């Protein structure tokens, strides 16, 4: 849950930083400032970070075959792809949908999206708390259902309910990730976690932040923008059945 504070805070802060720094420096100066920040934080973590002191496995073909034969890894890849699509993917498309599909003013749409991302930092922590209380699989089931319904509601809601729908969907979408990362760390041995994450997350971003927004853009060109939200919500709802084949080993 603490991990999920970072991307949601970044969604809010990044545009503000870009606007502020671009008024003082050129685009090269902005990139240099970001690079300096990364170097500083990397140095701080190397000195004070409490990460594991053991070496992870390299992506050897033998290791990759072992991971590829795990049904749990394929299930988590599918769930992360859909959840990243509902979070990061829709973040890039909701302002466009509100302006083009719902006729909102551009500044008002950005304000609502930013406010929803600020609230998502709270729900991410609550999502982590829920995982501890309900268990990983039960919590993931509820989060997928809630995110699926709220995503479908984005496409079906009448105009008078769109502010509520636009705020609620991002707040629920982030709740999956605390449970998802906890499960991902449990279904593989500790020394294979780095390789498993390097497989699952890039594929999830490629599908969720690449393919899903592209599909929504294609539907927008054919004047059926809202259909994309309904379809993604339906996929999130039906993905709950995959949890029946997800077996968590004892810790």
Question: Could you explain the architecture of this structure?
Answer:
The protein is mostly helical and 251 residues long. The protein folds into two domains: 18-51; 60-245, MFS general substrate transporter like domains (Growth Hormone, Chain: A), CATH 1.20.1250.20. 79% of the residues lie in helices and 0% in strands. It contains ten helices and no strands. The protein has helices at residues 2-22, 27-48, 61-68, 71-101, 106-134, 136-156, 162-173, 176-186, 193-221, 225-238. It starts with a helix and ends in a 13-residue tail after the last helix. The mean pLDDT is 89.
Q: Helical amount among residues, as a percent range?
A: over 70%
- CATH class of the largest domain equals Mainly Alpha
> CATH superfamily of the largest domain, please?
MFS general substrate transporter like domains
Q: What overall geometry do the principal axes of the alpha carbons give?
A: globular
What gap, in angstroms, lies between the N and C termini? 20 Å
Rg on CA atoms, Å: 19 Å
What is the averaged pLDDT score?
Answer: 89
Task: Provide the number of structural domains.
Answer: 2
SSE topology sketch:
Layout: H1 2-22, H2 27-48, H3 61-68, H4 71-101, H5 106-134, H6 136-156, H7 162-173, H8 176-186, H9 193-221, H10 225-238
Helix pairs in contact: 1-5, 4-5, 4-7, 4-8, 4-9, 4-10, 5-6, 5-7, 5-8, 6-7, 6-8, 6-10, 9-10
